[in-house]
Amino acid sequence: MSSDPSTLVYTANHEPVEIRAATVLPARRENVELRTEDGQTLVGEIALPARGEPRATLVTLHPLPTHGGFMDSHVYKKASYRLPALAGIAVLRFNLRGTSSPRGTSTGAFDGGDAERYDVEAATEWAMAQGLPQRWLVGWSFGSELVLKYGAVPPVADRVEGGILLSPPLHRAGDADLDRWAASRKPLRVLVPEFDDYLRPEEAARRFARVPQAELTGVDGAKHLWVGERFVQRALDEIASTVLGEPVRLPATWSGPTAKGS
Fold first, then answer.
1. pLDDT tens, residue by residue, 98-119
2. Which residues are within 8 A (CB) of 260 and not within 5 positions of it... i.e. 6 or more apart?
C-alpha cells in the first residue's frame, strides 16, 4: 500500500468477500507527525472509522527496529486495515525514533528503550489532544517492553486505560516495571504464543503473577511473530474484546467496497 492513504482505490463488491491479508476496509486514514519532548519527529498514520466516532483507540508500539520491526509490522497493519470498519476502533501506528517504513523515517536513533520513553509520551499526548476515546497501549515484542516500562507511570498512565502485550520477552522490562503496573491497578492483557522464542506461557504466568490484574492467555500453536492468518485473527479478536469490554469475534467477510494493500 502506498504511504499516501489518499491513493487507495476501492472496488465495489456485489457479494460478501473474504477478508484476506491484504484486504483494506474503508476508513478515514491520515498521515500524521508526532513531536517528542526531546525534539524528534515521528511519522505515522491514524485510521478512524469511516463514519461516526471511534469506540476506542489503539496506540501501537512496534517490535524491535533493529530486527525489522516498524509501524507496518503485519499485525498492526492488518489492525489498521480492519478494526476501524469491523469494530469502530481507531488505530494509531507510527515509527519509533530512527525507524523507517514506506511512510518515511522518524528522526533520532534507536536507544534500546530509554529515549523511546519520549516516543510513547508523544503518541499518547497526540491521541489525547485529538480527543480519541478509550486509549489503550498495545505493544508487540520490543513494544511490549515500552508498555511495561512507561505505561503505568505519569504522564502516560494518566492518558491510557490500560495495556495489551503481544509476545512480551521481558528482557528490558523487569520486576520493578511489573510492580508499577500492579500498583497502578490498570488492566493488563497478555497474549503469549505457545511456541514463543523468548517467553512461553508457563514461565510468563510465573513472571506476570506479580501483577494481580494481569489477564494472561497462552495462544496454542502461535509463534513470536504471529505468522498465519488464524493467529492474526485471534490477536485482533482478543485486542478488540479487551478495549471494547465485551467478547468480540470479528467477521471473516465484508459486504462493501475494499482496496488492496501490500
1. 999 999 999 999 999 999 999 9
2. 1, 22, 23, 24
Domain enclosing residue 236, as ranges: 5-260
Name the domain count of the chain: 1
pTM above 0.90, yes or no: yes
